[in-house]
Amino acid sequence: VIRATPLVRKIYNKLDSDTLIIVGKKDIQVPLEMFDEYHIPNLVVLKSQDHRITQEVFPEIMDQINKFLKECDSK
């Protein structure tokens, strides 16, 4: 997990099938439009979440992480 300072919002150049990005659809601090320029094979948008996903552990996030890790193990 890379933590960015509030003044820096950057997606690094290496986004591949080993990268999982989870975002909240209702996040106004990191809007979905920020990801439009990138090809992200594993982008998960949580429809009912906002920026709180960066501060709390939500079961739906853990489910997505576990699913991703299982898929990686099966490769």
Low-confidence stretches: none
Distance between the termini: 22 Å
- Please give the largest β-sheet: 2 strands, parallel
User: What is the global morphology?
Assistant: flat
Output the number of helix runs.
1
Rounded mean pLDDT is 84
Helix content: 10-25%
Encode the helix/strand succession as letters. EEH
Strand residue percentage:
5-15%
Q: What structural class do helix, strand and pairing data support?
A: alpha+beta
Rg from alpha-carbon coordinates: 13 Å
Q: Trace the largest sheet across and list its strands.
A: 1-2
Count of distinct strands: 2
What can you tell me about this protein's structure?
There is one protein chain. Strands 1-2 form a two-stranded parallel ribbon. It has one helix spanning 59-73; strands at 21-24, 43-46. By secondary structure, it is an alpha+beta fold. The longest helix is centred in the C-terminal third of the chain and has 15 residues, at 59-73. It is built from one helix and two strands. Helix content is 20%, strand content 11%. The radius of gyration is 13 Å and the shape is flat. It starts with 20 loop residues before the first strand and ends with a helix.
